[in-house]
Write a structure and sequence with these properties.
The chain is α+β, with helices and mostly antiparallel strands. The protein has eleven helices and eleven strands. It has helices spanning 3-16, 23-30, 34-46, 76-92, 99-112, 115-127, 145-157, 229-238, 254-258, 308-315, 325-343, and strands at residues 51-54, 60-63, 161-166, 172-185, 188-195, 200-205, 209-214, 244-252, 266-270, 294-302, 319-323. Strands 6-5-4-3-7 form a five-stranded antiparallel β-sheet. The chain has a four-stranded antiparallel β-sheet with strand order 9-10-8-11. A hairpin with a 5-residue loop joins β1 and β2. The protein is elongated, with a radius of gyration of 28 Å. The N and C termini lie far apart (76 Å). Mean pLDDT is 79; it is low at 274-290.
Length: 349
Amino acid sequence: MSRPTGRVLALLELLLSGGTRTVAELADRLGVDGRTVRRYVDQLVDLDVPVETLRGRYGGYRLSPGYRLPPLMFSDDEALAVLLGLVAGRRAGLTTAQDTAGETAAAKIRRVLPPHVAHRLGTLLESLDFTDRSGRPDGSEPPDAGVLLALADAVRHRRPVRIRYGDRAGRRTERTFHPYGIVAHAGRWYVTGRDADLDEDRTFRLDRVADVRALPGAGPFEEPPGPGPVERVLSGFATAEYRYEVTLRVHGTVEQIRAHLPASVATVASLEQPEPDSDSDPEPATDRNPSAERWLRVELRAERLDWLPRTLAALDRPFVIERPDELRDLVLALADRLTACARATAHRS
């Protein structure tokens, strides 16, 4: 490929990225002068590429809206980014119901790459490994691509939809839903928003949504102020119904607690006054000192408690167990085991 032709294709790539590009910007990116940029634009127009010229102080060039993309052209770095994204998405379980789509897309990309680039990328992918090999969580199916795209469109335009949802017991219900956002978390897709039938915020797993239908004539809804979609999903996990309700008082900072009990597991709130039974009198939280160590209330729900004593030991901060009593017994049992091991004397055979 000759150098001018390569620059014309580079110009097309810049225009395909969207927006209006000034002559000065294009000249700088291509390493040519303004007159040459205009000549390259004329060549694209001769190839029936609809390049629009915008006059004025903020003018420049852009592609006409609705222009259909030509066959994609990837640089080495772009091909690597796409292939890594496909591989990582498949390993993390974040794929659509068409599991083979990612594999066929990756195969198509690799098939048209120059031999030396394909070899280098193949070497990288063969040497690449992941710490998490579990892929999609047990009992989870990939969401349907049509459901995912329909909900994304509803989120973008703030349009209510009618969804058909199956809960964990397999019961199917239909409900009117105002989707606020889509969140990928721990190998699953979630949509969070307002259930108009129940008039409450809800978070649904996308693999359990069987159908999404737009509501004809329904106007856009207003998303209420407050936490964003990610915070809504994580707080929903922390307050979900489980067997045990755990309440603790922990002396430390929010950052120290969050390092072991993230927002998807527990809620953390300030206590209005320092605890009277504490050995120290920590400085109360103020706007000027938000990271001061202080007594905080930690609440979480869990189906099992056996993991919590180890987590509290790793937290390494003073704590008080308010409930349940079963957790206090488990912590004492762990302390006894650690004490016995620490006092044991090593014997040589």
